[in-house]
Every structure is written in structure tokens, then in C-alpha cells.
Amino acid sequence: MNNNNVIEAQNLTKMFGDFTAVNAISFEVKKGEIFGFLGANGAGKTTAMKMLIGISKPTSGAAKVAGFDVFTNAEDIKKNIGYMSQKFALYDDLTVKENITFFGGIYGLSRKSIKEKSAILIEELGLEKVASKLVGSLPLGWKQKLSFSVSLLHDPKIVFLDEPTGGVDPITRRQFWEMIYKAAHQGTTVFVTTHYMDEAEYCDRVSIMVNGKIEALDTPKKLKQQFNVANMNDVFLKLARG
Fold first, then answer.
1. In whole angstroms, what is the distance from residue 229 CA to residue 24 CA?
2. Domain ABC transporter, which positions (predicted)?
3. S-S: 61 plus which of 11, 78, 112, 223, CB 3.0-4.6 Å?
4. What is the pLDDT of residue 1?
């Protein structure tokens, strides 16, 4: 594995019976990069991510994440990454503080570390007044920002975000991306899936999946130049139309 890369995939494939959900995709992600994994719903983004985070075994191909093989070292991968699922991952029937404490324990943090990180996290998110309230009572935007922050509790090398801004308002989306920039600035590699093409502009590089295949991969600027269009949505439309 190249020392500059934290993810490397070669011909990674996932089949469900006769259906090929992810079709021989190859790419790499560099340290500290914000890598956008784009495509329409059903393009194969989430299936590919599940292989990379060690919860779904590939049918064929090869991949390494944080230096660990997806076939043989799935548990080591899980220890070195953060993950925010498409569906809200925290527990609605626990308070904000209880969720942070619970996941801090799952990540193997000491009680002292959990207490310190919890105080910092709650202050940074401005959740002091609701820290003792059930997470289920919070607005979706707050839930999403809290979920992202919890996924970073153990200082992972890579954080995987699956459609993190789905269903939230434009202001919350912008705030969420500010959090992503901050994490990347602090050295965390961010792998983010989205079907919002405007969010591609916020990424260092993007890949675009169509029907299980990566049909384009480069910086947003170069992709717009390549397809002679003004925005990433038009790049995607050209690819989708073949």
C-alpha cells in the first residue's frame, strides 16, 4: 500500500446472486483528503462503502483500508475508522451525554477521556442546554451533527459518512460541511457519499458511480473541464445519459 494512501481498491466487486451491485471498481484515497463518492440512489455507493468498512465481504477484487485487508482484517479496519450511517446511528432513548459515553466505551476510550471529550463536544456543538435530554427529542440537524462528532470520538484515521446531509435544511448542510473541513484540516481523511451534486464542489476529488461502476474520477475542476460544463450536476447528467 502506498504510504500516501489510506484506501486502495482494485477491481472491487460485490454480487448478490446474478446481480452485480458493485462492478470491479478501482481507486485510491489519499491521507487527509475529502473524497466524494457520488452517484444517484441505487448506484452502488452504500454497498461499496460497506465493503470498505468491513461489514460486507467483497465477492472479488482487493482493497485495503488504513493498511488492513478487507478480506482478512475487517475487525482491525473497524478499530481505525469512524462511521456515520445513512440512517441516524445514535440511540433515541438515551440522552446526549449517555450516547457519547456509550460510544466512547465502544471505541475503547478511558472514562477520563470520555468525560473530557464529552465536555468539549457538547460545548462545540452548543448542546449544553439539551445534554441531558433524549436524543430522540432533538431536531434532525442536531442529531446529524452529534452523530458525526461521535464518529470522531476515538480520533480515527478515516471517517466514512453515508449520505450525512440527507433530509436536513441548507443552513445545517453548510454547517455540517464546515465540520467536515475542520476534521480534514486536523488530519482525518473523509470519505463521503452523497447524491447532492453541489456537495461535490466541496471535495478534493470525487468519483461518480453509475450502475455499479466508477465512470469518472478527478477533482471537481478537472471534471467540469473534461465534460465542458459549469457545474457537477451537469457532469453527472452527461454520465448518466451515457
1. 28
2. 7-236
3. 11
4. 60
